[in-house]
Structures are given as structure tokens and as C-alpha cells.
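Researcher: I'm preparing a figure for a lab meeting and need a structural model of a single chain. I don't have an experimental structure, so a prediction will have to do for now. The sequence is pasted below. Please return the structure as C-alpha cells so I can convert it later.
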Amino acid sequence: MASFDLHLHTHWSYDAFSAVEDYFRLAREKKTRAIAITDHHLMDGYHDVLSCAEKYPDVGYFSGAEITVNSPFGAVDLVCLNLPRRPEGELAGVFEIYRNWQVAYGDGISKNMCQLGFPFCDAE
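Model: Understood. Here is the structure written out cell by cell.
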């Protein structure tokens, strides 16, 4: 069993459903020393991490995010650890661009689901 799990996504990511507390609880059960919540392109769930860290002081944590960057070899996903709690400057701008993209993406999915007759809108 690994002592660390440094690449976990929560319901704050567009491809996951887990709650932050579930990871802390499971880490305690499995005697995992530390975890990193690395949601895609944002750290909006970091307040959840801090709250859970108080409830599970025996589980260490790293702040982080998974960020997609373009390189000469194509797009690459980087797991970035120990990011500042409140990103500033250029990093804050990158997070804002991705946050806006995720909102637009979610709005598009909701609109299409509603057009298909499913109750899948902000009000629901």
C-alpha cells in the first residue's frame, strides 16, 4: 500500500464525483501519510481541504492542481504540488481562464440536456 496519494480529483473537477472528506477518511483508514487534492485547473475546493485537515490531523496534505500546458510535444498534464493557497499574478490568471472554460463547458452540457428534455439546469 502506498504511503502517499498525490493525484486525487474531487467533485470540483469535471471528471470526478468524490467529496474531499471521503479522501481524508479513506487515507486515515488505509494509513496513508499524505494526500494531494489536484483538481483540474483550479483550487476552488481548497477550503474543503483545510476543513478536513482539521478533522483528520493524522493525514497530511499538499495543496495542488492538475494543469494542462502546451509544449512543443503537444498538450501535457502536470500535477503541480505545494501551490499557494491563494494563487496570485499569472497563476491566478491561468486559473481564471480555466474556471471560465469549465463554466462555459458545464453551461453547454446543461443546455443540451435541457433541450433533450432532461431537468438538468441551474435551478435543478
